[in-house]
Structures are given as structure tokens and as C-alpha cells.
Amino acid sequence: ATPTAIMVGVGKGAENNILIKDAESLELGHRVNAIVLDKTGTITKGKPEVTDIVWESTEAGDHARGVLLGMEAQSEHPLAEAVVRRLQADGIRPAIIKGFNSLTGQGVEASDEAGERYFVGNSQLLQERNIALTTELEQQSRQWQDQVKTVVFFANEQQVLAVVAIADQLKPSSKAAIARLKQMGVSVYMLTGDNRQTAAAVAAQVGVTDFKAEVLPADKAEFIKQLQAEGKLVAMVGDGINDSHALAQADVSIAMGQGSDIAMDVAKMTLITSDLKSIPKALQLSRKTVFGIK
Ligand code: ADP
Ligand code: MG
């Protein structure tokens, strides 16, 4: 492409939230035939969110909700942060709690002002204390686990008062963007350090059939090398510190703008939007730049 065409391309990119650092990636983009996507923070939002809460009965009223909020507000666990955001959005006010304590590997415990004990945590926490769970809530939590959601239990010393489902949500644009890339003849792969079950669920939801779970950061770069050895021209999209080796190895590297500074430093293109539809747009932009199509 001519210098003028490159300049126009970079400008068009910027208008579409695509920052292009070098002319080479703009020229290579149209030849990309394999794209590797990181899961967390790229395909998904990368932040756990509460998807559902079911309370044991309507009797578990504002006080119980306030205790749950009061407890989780004192915890720094990412699951707790998700619970706090949700309850605050629901307009719940935190109750005063005392004797907050972390239970390693299980959750947290505390008392309300009247001295009643409460617990927030996983199923191990319930088992160890013989806390009862109604059949209904048990079935509900099984169903969420099948959907690869993380289940958090809130209980007093006798019984479970609420179950909460938490998941890292898909970005709304992921599925359509991946479909568009496939339509353009690009093979799409997903890599993640996450476990196989979660990876499989996310891949299925966005229409990716080629994915690898439990991948170490160095292995992400190795995976790209293998695709290149098969003669593919590979683009990598990532957001984390984890992804910097893979970004450096790829022929075209794309960082998600809300990701780590390292990813943005290494990558030759940065998407300043979290919208994955900018990826097919970037490849299209390269096509237009190189072939001079309007
Ligand atoms: P990790 O940091 O690996 O999650 P922790 O010992 O901090 O290990 O917690 C272990 C488990 O206990 C978590 O995976 C979660 O299921 C539960 N847990 C811990 N803290 C909380 C909390 N504040 N709210 C809900 N669940 C929690
Ligand atoms: Mg921890």
C-alpha cells in the first residue's frame, strides 16, 4: 500500500476505535487466516457477576440481605465483590456485623448485632458444619453448576438462607464477531488457563470448536508457533500480562484496550473498545488499505 493509503487506513482505524501502531500489521491483516482469542477479558467480560440469587423463603427478609452485604463488604474475594455490587444495585443496606473471620478454602463467617452466626462460602463450608440445604435449593445449585456457574451459599448455623450464582459473562458482541471472522474464512481458536469445563461451556456458547484449556502463558506462544509452522498467518487477541508472549509471537497482535498495559505495549494494534466486532473490522480495513477499495 502507498504511504497515503496507510495514512488513510490508520485514520479510518482510529475512527473505528482501532489504534494501529505500525504499517506492517495494516498490510498483513488481510492475509490473516487464523485468529487466536484469549478467553477471560477478551471473549468474556473478565469480571465475575452475580447472575441469580434465590432466597430460602420470603421470611429471609431485609435483615438477612443486609447481613450478607455487610459480610461480603468486608471480604476482598472477587466473588464477594460481585455479591456486593449486586446487592448494592438492588438497594440493600448493609447490616452491622461483628467478629468477621475468613475460613481458609471455604469462605467467611461473622455475627450480626444480636450475636447470631452467619456463613458465606462453598459447599464444603456447609458440609463441615452440617448446615441444612432444602431439596429445592440443592437442585437449584446443581443446575447452576451444570451451567458452569460458581455457587455461593449464605447460611446461619442451622440452614442455608440463600444461594447465589456467579459467572464471568460473555461480552454481548463475542458470538457475532466470531461468526463474522469464520465467514471471512478465518479459523478461530480459543486459549485459556481456565479449567476444561468452563472453557468448553464458553466455547460452545460463542461457536468456537477449536479450543485449549489449562494453557500456561508460555504454551500460548507455542500454540501460535505451531499454527505458523502449518503455514498460517496468525493474529492473536489478548488482554492480560499472560498474553504478552503470545502477542509477540503472532504475525498480527491485537490488545483489548481495557486490558493490561503490557499487552497494549506489545501489541501492534489496540482496540479501544471492548467490542470484538472491531476485529473483523480491522481485517477488513487492511483489505481496503491494501487493495484500495472504498
Ligand atoms: P481462593 O483465593 O483460591 O478462592 P480462598 O481460601 O480465599 O481461596 O477461598 C476458597 C473458596 O471459598 C472460594 O473459592 C469460594 O468458593 C469460597 N469463598 C471464600 N471467600 C468467599 C467470600 N467472601 N464469599 C463467598 N465465597 C467465598
Ligand atoms: Mg483467596
Automatic annotation (TrEMBL):
<protein>
    <recommendedName>
        <fullName>P-type Cu(+) transporter</fullName>
    </recommendedName>
</protein>
<comment type="similarity">
    <text>Belongs to the cation transport ATPase (P-type) (TC 3.A.3) family. Type IB subfamily.</text>
</comment>
